Amino acid sequence: MKTLILNRKEVHQLLPMNECIDVMAETFKVLGNKGILQPQRTVMWLPEKMGVLAMMPAYVGDLDTMGVKVISVFPGNHGTQFDSHQGMVMLFDTHNGRPLAIIDASEITAIRTAAASGVATKILAREDASDLVILGSGVQAREHLRAMLFIRNIKRTRVWNPYPDLARQFAESEGVLQGIDIEPVEGEKADVEGADIICTVTPSLEPVLFGDTIPDGAHINAVGASQPNARELDAATVVKSRMFVDCRESALKESGDFLFARQEGEVSDKHILGEIGEILLGRVEGRKSADDITLFESLGMASEDVISAQHVYSKAVEKGMGTLIEL
Hints:
The chain is an alpha/beta fold. The protein has helices spanning about 10-15, 15-30, 105-125, 140-150, 165-180, 235-240, 250-255, 255-265, 275-280, 300-320; strands at about 1-5, 35, 40-45, 50-60, 65-75, 85-90, 100-105, 130-135, 155-160, 180-185, 195-200, 220, 240-245, 270-275, 295, 325. It folds into 2 domains: about 1-110 and about 305-325, ornithine cyclodeaminase, domain 1 (2-Layer Sandwich); about 115-300, Rossmann fold, CATH 3.40.50. The protein contains 10 helices and 16 strands. Strands 1, 2, 3, 4, 5, 6, 7 and 16 form an 8-stranded mixed β-sheet that branches.
């Protein structure tokens, strides 16, 4: 039997942002209904924390699919020819275990992460949200810009990076691609005054967003800190936000943004008000007022990768795309 190989370019064609946002919404609902088996990711750090190799398996009963993402994360790759996240998603037949597909994980990770924030923004940000600030200027900054432009009518966009040249490069290149004006923000701290939507997509181990700078009514997508030793938000940001997560179990073990605030005695586990899927299913209330500051803490789940991969695989088979090989 043959296995289908799908490269990065093919994944990009098969997984447009608007489709992936819908796929992520369904993923959150299935998770909310306990229809997913999803062990905690296994992480192996290399010496001196220079990089990490992670394995993320999942089984989705509703789709009768199972798979695993194996991915390396090397933050030092930023600015080189290599992505910080590289790997593959492997899909398997649930009846006989046959390998169905090996799919590029860099593109799936990039798109589905931003699409998950798109879902959170759609249900948590104010309907009139139009002022966007992105902290970071890498792959996730690019994809989050795409997702936010799709979800809301963005009229002003700013980008911040601790290295101003990178912010200016992003503003110029992405401004041309998207046909919009992007303002690079300089300074040790990001200027988020007047922001309606704030996306933190940095590899920082220390806070880059501070509670005393966040305007009332803002929505925050916190994406970069997916390990307990890293944080993008200070405790004040967490305290003043209505906090929601992709997966409560993961957040309690891996969310540095939350864990540092809890360690400092500022919040308890009850501060996590619910999962995004619970909001979509009508079990938890999201934004209560226009002045609420809402926070989506995104850890990234194996089910997001596997369900995205299944979507890509099904479309590829239908369209006759990819390369079949005999393993």
